[in-house]
Specification:
The complex is a heterodimer.
Chain A (H helix, E strand, L loop, with lengths): L1 E6 L5 H9 L5 E8 L6 E8 L1 H18 L2 E9 L1 E3 L4 E9 L2 H18 L2 E7 L3 E3 L4 H9 L5
Parallel strand pairs in A: 1-4
Antiparallel strand pairs in A: 2-6, 3-5, 3-7, 4-6, 7-8
Chain B lengths: L2 E6 L1 H7 L3 E5 L7 H9 L3 H6 L7 E4 L2 E3 L10 E5 L6
Classes of the chains: A alpha+beta, B alpha+beta.
Chain lengths: 148, 86
């Protein structure tokens, strides 16, 4: 089973992990992304493409489910204005085997960075700047093609 | 003439000052790149926002496509910079 939530609200990683543990796998892997407070960042604003985001992230999760023998996958991605220390994204996977759980978790976060329609804008005290996509993130996403 | 909805995100949206607009599709066999060229031929903010197609990515009816994809029967074309989620 898998579930995707695209939401403005915060989430509770402990509750999400407990739900994954309840699926009866041998292991749960997870990643929680947090807004870094470096460079006097006041807030991070996440814009997305509402008509596309949910379906596109579901496609990414389906890809993970087809590549690894997962008992469950959970993705939560927030949008809107987030301050340093706030949670942005949660990826959790569970499988009978640790390799599948760990690899699929890494795959999901790599693909969320390069294959989901979100854009980050940094707000500083005196200016704003759109975050530029990094070539190494694209390369990481690309590295999963032809594998798995 | 058929209409196509254009949607803009991130700095593209800010540069043109619109979330979305409708345009007349010149022909069904035009590509995303052709349309970016038409937008760049408009004045001021459009000329600047669409001057360099290499800075842009696209989705046709909510699926990522390359700039050389044909619009065909699609109803919605989104234009935006490379994504930065996660």
């Amino acid at each position: 089973m898998s579930r995707v939530s695209i939401q403005a609200e915060d989430f509770d990683p402990a509750a999400e992990l407990a739900a994954l543990e309840g699926l009866g796998g041998g292991g749960v892997a997870s990643f929680t992304g947090i807004v870094r407070g470096e460079g006097r960042l006041v807030a991070l604003e996440l814009e997305h493409y509402p008509a596309m985001t949910q379906v596109q992230v579901e496609r990414i999760v389906e890809e993970a489910m087809s590549r690894w023998p997962l008992l469950g996958a959970r993705v939560i991605h927030r949008y809107g204005r987030l301050e340093p220390g706030a949670r942005i994204v949660f990826v959790g996977t569970t499988s009978r085997h640790r390799t599948a759980a760990l690899e699929s978790c890494a795959f999901l976060i790599d693909w969320l960075k390069s294959e989901a329609p979100f854009w980050k804008k940094e707000h500083f005290a005196d200016r704003t700047a759109w975050v530029e996509a990094r070539a190494e993130d694209a390369a990481k996403a690309q590295s999963w093609r032809g594998e798995g | 003439m058929r209409q196509l909805t254009l949607m803009y995100f991130a700095w593209v949206r800010e540069a043109v000052g619109l979330d979305e607009e409708r345009i007349d599709l010149p022909a069904p066999d035009v590509t995303v790149r052709d349309l970016i060229g038409l937008l760049a031929a408009r004045d001021g903010a459009y000329a600047e926002a669409f001057a360099d197609p290499a800075r842009l990515r696209a989705a046709l009816d909510q699926r990522f496509v390359t700039l050389d994809s044909v619009i065909g029967e699609a109803k919605e074309l989104a234009l935006f910079p490379p994504v930065t989620g996660g």
